[in-house]
Protein backbone atom coordinates (compact mmCIF):
# COMPACT_ATOMS: atom_id res chain seq x y z
CA UNK A 1 0.00 0.00 0.00
CA UNK A 2 1.34 3.45 -0.85
CA UNK A 3 0.63 6.62 1.08
CA UNK A 4 -2.14 7.84 -1.21
CA UNK A 5 -3.93 4.50 -0.83
CA UNK A 6 -3.58 4.74 2.96
CA UNK A 7 -5.23 8.18 2.92
CA UNK A 8 -7.97 6.80 0.71
CA UNK A 9 -8.61 4.00 3.22
CA UNK A 10 -8.62 6.38 6.17
CA UNK A 11 -11.20 8.73 4.61
CA UNK A 12 -13.66 5.92 3.77
CA UNK A 13 -16.93 6.46 5.58
CA UNK A 14 -16.11 9.96 6.77
CA UNK A 15 -18.96 12.41 6.16
CA UNK A 16 -17.34 15.73 7.13
CA UNK A 17 -17.07 17.56 3.82
CA UNK A 18 -14.23 19.78 5.03
CA UNK A 19 -12.18 16.79 6.12
CA UNK A 20 -12.83 15.25 2.69
CA UNK A 21 -11.67 18.44 0.96
CA UNK A 22 -8.44 18.45 2.97
CA UNK A 23 -7.76 14.77 2.29
CA UNK A 24 -8.55 15.19 -1.42
CA UNK A 25 -6.00 18.02 -1.53
CA UNK A 26 -3.44 15.86 0.27
CA UNK A 27 -4.02 13.01 -2.16
CA UNK A 28 -2.93 15.33 -4.98
CA UNK A 29 0.42 15.82 -3.21
CA UNK A 30 2.02 12.68 -4.68
CA UNK A 31 5.48 13.78 -3.56
CA UNK A 32 4.26 13.28 0.02
CA UNK A 33 3.25 9.64 -0.45
CA UNK A 34 5.98 8.38 1.90
CA UNK A 35 4.90 10.82 4.64
CA UNK A 36 1.34 9.46 4.48
CA UNK A 37 2.67 5.99 5.39
CA UNK A 38 3.84 7.17 8.82
CA UNK A 39 1.84 4.99 11.22
CA UNK A 40 1.91 7.57 14.03
CA UNK A 41 -0.18 9.85 11.80
CA UNK A 42 -3.95 9.58 11.32
CA UNK A 43 -6.87 11.75 10.25
CA UNK A 44 -8.37 12.10 13.72
CA UNK A 45 -5.15 13.59 15.10
CA UNK A 46 -4.71 15.71 11.96
CA UNK A 47 -8.19 17.19 12.46
CA UNK A 48 -7.43 17.85 16.13
CA UNK A 49 -4.13 19.52 15.18
CA UNK A 50 -5.86 21.78 12.63
CA UNK A 51 -8.69 22.67 15.05
CA UNK A 52 -6.18 23.53 17.77
CA UNK A 53 -4.26 25.86 15.44
CA UNK A 54 -7.49 27.51 14.31
CA UNK A 55 -8.61 28.02 17.93
CA UNK A 56 -5.36 29.85 18.63
CA UNK A 57 -6.23 32.34 15.88
CA UNK A 58 -9.83 32.81 16.99
CA UNK A 59 -11.14 36.09 18.35
CA UNK A 60 -14.36 35.84 20.37
CA UNK A 61 -14.49 32.14 19.41
CA UNK A 62 -14.52 32.97 15.69
CA UNK A 63 -11.76 32.23 13.21
CA UNK A 64 -11.66 32.47 9.45
CA UNK A 65 -8.74 30.53 8.05
CA UNK A 66 -7.84 30.55 4.36
CA UNK A 67 -7.87 27.22 2.56
CA UNK A 68 -4.18 27.49 1.67
CA UNK A 69 -3.29 27.87 5.36
CA UNK A 70 -5.36 24.83 6.39
CA UNK A 71 -3.83 22.78 3.55
CA UNK A 72 -0.36 23.79 4.76
CA UNK A 73 -1.22 22.79 8.32
CA UNK A 74 -2.36 19.37 7.03
CA UNK A 75 0.87 18.97 5.06
CA UNK A 76 2.92 20.04 8.08
CA UNK A 77 1.10 17.46 10.19
CA UNK A 78 2.28 14.66 7.90
CA UNK A 79 5.75 16.09 7.16
CA UNK A 80 6.81 16.79 10.75
CA UNK A 81 7.10 14.45 13.70
CA UNK A 82 4.53 14.65 16.47
CA UNK A 83 7.34 15.83 18.75
CA UNK A 84 8.14 18.72 16.38
CA UNK A 85 4.45 19.66 16.28
CA UNK A 86 4.08 19.47 20.07
CA UNK A 87 1.63 16.56 19.89
CA UNK A 88 1.83 14.27 22.91
CA UNK A 89 0.91 10.63 22.52
CA UNK A 90 -1.77 9.59 25.00
CA UNK A 91 -2.39 5.90 25.54
CA UNK A 92 -6.07 5.10 25.94
CA UNK A 93 -6.77 2.98 29.00
CA UNK A 94 -9.81 0.85 29.69
CA UNK A 95 -9.73 0.07 33.42
CA UNK A 96 -6.24 -1.40 33.77
CA UNK A 97 -5.98 -2.71 30.20
CA UNK A 98 -4.45 -0.69 27.39
CA UNK A 99 -6.78 -0.51 24.42
CA UNK A 100 -5.00 -1.45 21.20
CA UNK A 101 -5.17 1.06 18.37
CA UNK A 102 -5.79 -0.08 14.84
CA UNK A 103 -3.60 0.89 11.87
CA UNK A 104 -5.61 4.06 11.29
CA UNK A 105 -5.31 5.51 14.79
CA UNK A 106 -8.72 4.53 16.13
CA UNK A 107 -10.73 6.08 13.32
CA UNK A 108 -12.62 2.79 13.38
CA UNK A 109 -14.56 2.19 16.57
CA UNK A 110 -12.62 -0.76 18.01
CA UNK A 111 -14.60 -0.98 21.23
CA UNK A 112 -17.79 -1.81 19.33
CA UNK A 113 -16.25 -4.07 16.69
CA UNK A 114 -14.18 -6.20 19.06
CA UNK A 115 -17.19 -7.05 21.24
CA UNK A 116 -19.57 -9.47 19.59
CA UNK A 117 -17.80 -9.06 16.26
CA UNK A 118 -20.11 -11.56 14.59
CA UNK A 119 -23.18 -9.60 15.64
CA UNK A 120 -22.00 -6.05 15.09
CA UNK A 121 -21.15 -4.19 11.92
CA UNK A 122 -17.88 -2.21 11.98
CA UNK A 123 -18.71 1.47 12.38
CA UNK A 124 -16.62 4.42 11.30
CA UNK A 125 -15.99 7.06 13.96
CA UNK A 126 -16.96 10.34 12.36
CA UNK A 127 -14.36 13.07 12.51
CA UNK A 128 -15.42 16.66 12.21
CA UNK A 129 -13.59 19.90 11.84
CA UNK A 130 -16.49 21.82 13.42
Q: Your description of this structure?
A:
It is a single chain. With 130 residues, the protein is mainly alpha-helical. The protein has one domain. The chain contains 6 helices and 2 strands; from the N terminus they run αααααββα. Strands 1-2 form a two-stranded antiparallel ribbon. β1 and β2 (97-98) form a beta hairpin. α1 (3-11) packs antiparallel against α2 and α3 crosses α4 (67-79). The two termini are 30 Å apart. Residues 95-121 have low confidence and may be disordered.
Name the features.
130 residues; mainly alpha; 44% helix; 6 helices
Major sheet: arrangement of strands? 1-2
Low-confidence sequence ranges:
95-121
SSE order: HHHHHEEH
Largest sheet: 2 strands, antiparallel
How many structural domains does the protein architecture include? 1
Number of helices: 6
Structural class comes to: mainly alpha
The whole-number mean of residue pLDDT values reads 80
Strand content: under 5%
Amino acid sequence: MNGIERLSEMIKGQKDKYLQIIVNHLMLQTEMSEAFLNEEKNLKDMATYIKDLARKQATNNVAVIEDAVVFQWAKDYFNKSNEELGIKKIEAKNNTETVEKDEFGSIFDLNNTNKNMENKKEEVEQITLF
